[in-house]
């Protein structure tokens, strides 16, 4: 279909939305510079200069029973991933405090596994309470699998205000990448998180063999969920996983996807997440111009890290303002 990018941009600015057919036409539009510029204008209009940063700690690693084809921590694949049980509250506090000093506004514990046990959730809640005592300003998030509502309630009471659970890919493709749980399981978890009072963070991974139509499908699916914090992961092929030989995306494929997601989810925080290290500094800056306005960043205590410092410089150079800003949406749950 023929498509006028300026006309479609104005429709979104006026509060309208795209059809999936228009989304596909945008994603495949030959005038990439016009597409990128329009997405930039939408970002500036709806979100201004705001840029949201978060840091994470892998609080439990490896030996996951799920068979997600992209994941190094799945027990189904020989990837050499490190395996360890829950880290201590003191380690969590130290990591949160260290990254807060770098100017990072959010902190999340991430754990492998389908879901954590009630006993593990109690331990994790102790860590979050300790973090909130030590760094009251830090906004706490969690990514702990397909939790039950009572577990989410305990986390909320310990200070967690955002729950993360990615949909990963388009509904029409998910079953080809994972057979041990469904996207409905994920949607049920997010709905439960909202019921206890949390916001949600939900995105996906690009470059797992999905078609262009399925990238469009994912963008619209996330819109239907009301996700306004959308991690945009770029597949990092991991040796030993079924996707270990996947071909990398081109810069224009990445930038076009970001532009599409901005058009479809104009008020969302599109978040640099996994796989960003593959991108050149120039491509990262271009992505921020087009529509990325949040990122996972931070240094590990055990390394001489530069990522946080470099990211803060990049954010400033791109004319953005780093601040922890909550997204507010009314949901029908």
CA radius of gyration is 19 Å
* Assembly status: single chain
Report the end-to-end length measured between terminal Cα atoms. 36 Å
Number of helices: 12
Q: State the order of secondary-structure elements, H for helix, E for strand.
A: HHHEHEHEHEHHEEHEHEHEHE
- Uncertain segments are 329-333
Helix content: 40-55%
Number of strands: 10
* Overall residue-averaged pLDDT value: 93
Share of β-strand residues? 15-25%
Instruction: Name the structural class.
Output: alpha/beta
Shape: globular
> What about the largest sheet?
10 strands, parallel
Give an overview of the whole structure.
By secondary structure, this protein is an alpha/beta fold. 41% of the residues lie in helices and 15% in strands. It is built from twelve helices and ten strands. Strands 1, 2, 3, 4, 5, 6, 7, 8, 9 and 10 form a ten-stranded parallel β-sheet that branches. Helix 2 packs across helix 9, helix 5 packs parallel to helix 6 and helix 9 runs parallel beside helix 10. The two termini are 36 Å apart.
Topology:
Layout (H helix, E strand, L loop, with lengths): L4 H9 L6 H8 L4 H16 L2 E11 L28 H13 L4 E6 L6 H17 L4 E5 L5 H9 L2 E5 L9 H4 L5 H13 L3 E3 L2 E3 L5 H14 L3 E6 L16 H14 L4 E4 L8 H10 L1 E5 L10 H11 L3 E2 L11
Parallel strand pairs: 1-2, 1-9, 1-10, 2-3, 3-4, 4-5, 6-7, 7-8, 8-9
Helix pairs in contact: 1-3, 2-9, 2-10, 3-10, 4-5, 5-6, 9-10, 10-11
